[in-house]
Amino acid sequence: MSHDPRFFAFLKERIGLDVASVGEAIIERAVRQRSQAVNAQTAGDYWLHLQSSVDEQQALIEAVIVPETWFFRYPESFATLARLAKARLSEIKQMRALRILSLPCSTGEEPYSIAMALLDAGLAPHQFKVQGMDVSPLSVERARHAVYGKNSFRGADIGFRDRHFTEYGDGYHLADRVREQVRLQVGNLLDPALLANEPSYDFVFCRNLLIYFDQPTQKQVFDVLKGLTHVDGVLFIGPAEGSLLGRHGMRSIGVPQSFAFSRHAEPAQPEPVFKPMPAPLPQRSTAPIAPKPRPFTSASAQVVPIKASPSDAGDLLSQIATLANEGKSAEARAACERYLSSHPPAAQVFYWLGLLSDVAGSALEAQGYYRKALYLEPQHPQALMHLAALLESQGDSAGARRLQARAARSERADSESKR
């Protein structure tokens, strides 16, 4: 009963969500859950209830939004922020506090990471303030509560937890000195009056959001973000979103793994914004790493892998994901190479290589890896969506739409097979 375009249109209007970016099945499942919760017997019944209840409208949005975040996700972004913040304070001669915006702030891990990073870097509390904003009142309330479980602490370096949290029976409680640096509120990026009376921000974090919008909505949201960011400010985005900014007058500041962009004084170029970074990524791993990602050739495809147990393969795939999510691209790429040298080719490995190449600014190389992943697994959802975003940034809207439609069909089929 939930396959009804009215619900897709509602979410598009309210939060800008492009159904193709997440798949129809996710929205359909949320509609079914909410229909059952309010005892609606048909899609029409639930639609009428939705139109008459502001609370239910928000409940449906909450059912679709699934926060996936943790403290210090993409660590280099926060290290870069700390360096830039000190320089910015010097530029403005410390005449005012730095203004930093995090949206969507989800359950608070990002804005609190910003505050912890700046405090740990030696900034005094009066030198900066962080504004966190999210469309979800439930997420904002959880952020205000500031009590977190172990899933919010990932990666090898969690020393900040000892400095800024106290463990109790219900989880880890954030210290008041960090909470006091962050102001949280509910807000919608599609609201034209969003923060209209507020001064611009020195730094804006808006990560992993643009990829869920269609191209017109991306432009609309980007215009809002650009207006919120000071002319000399910096915008931090997600790893897969950099290629979307080149057409809108932004360029990478050139710090590997920071995903940080500033305004470009020159006219925007039609090519993807990612350019080769001026400095190589640090290599902390002892494993040998080729100077360039290994191109996929017919010769490399014929290499006979050495024998390895399935558990070894699973452990290595998990290691690749962990390293990539922590922003350790050199180590993640080395782990991919180790996998391909000892196991049969796997779509997930080529997907990670594609994402790592995308982040490094090698758009064409990334496209090749994504396509290899789809050759091995035609309905690989992440490869479909990231390749779609890449094609969109290159002006191939038709190709992007085709891939988004494939991803939506795959999600729907997967959902139906689990019923």
Tell me briefly what this model is.
The chain contains 18 helices and ten strands. It is α/β, with parallel strands linked by helices and 419 residues long. The two termini are 14 Å apart.
Shape: globular
Residue-averaged pLDDT, rounded? Answer: 79
Any low-confidence stretches, pLDDT <50, length ≥5? 266-308
Category from helices, strands and their pairing:
alpha/beta
Structure description:
- This protein is α/β, with parallel strands linked by helices.
- The chain has 3 domains: 5-64, no CATH class; 75-263, 3-Layer(aba) Sandwich (Rossmann fold), CATH 3.40.50; 307-417, Tetratricopeptide repeat domain (Serine Threonine Protein Phosphatase 5, Tetratricopeptide repeat, Alpha Horseshoe), CATH 1.25.40.10.
- Helices cover 50% and strands 11% of the residues.
- The chain is built from 18 helices and 10 strands.
- The chain has helices spanning 5-15, 19-22, 24-37, 43-52, 54-64, 75-91, 109-120, 137-145, 159-164, 176-179, 215-228, 298-301, 310-325, 329-342, 347-360, 363-376, 381-393, 397-417; strands at residues 98-102, 128-134, 147-148, 165-168, 171-174, 182-186, 201-205, 229-236, 250-252, 260-263.
- The protein has a 7-stranded mixed beta sheet with strand order 6-2-1-7-8-10-9. Strands 3-5-4 form a 3-stranded antiparallel beta sheet.
- The radius of gyration is 22 Å and the shape is globular.
- It starts with a helix and ends with a helix.
- The relative contact order is 0.10.
- The model is unreliable at 266-308 (pLDDT under 50).
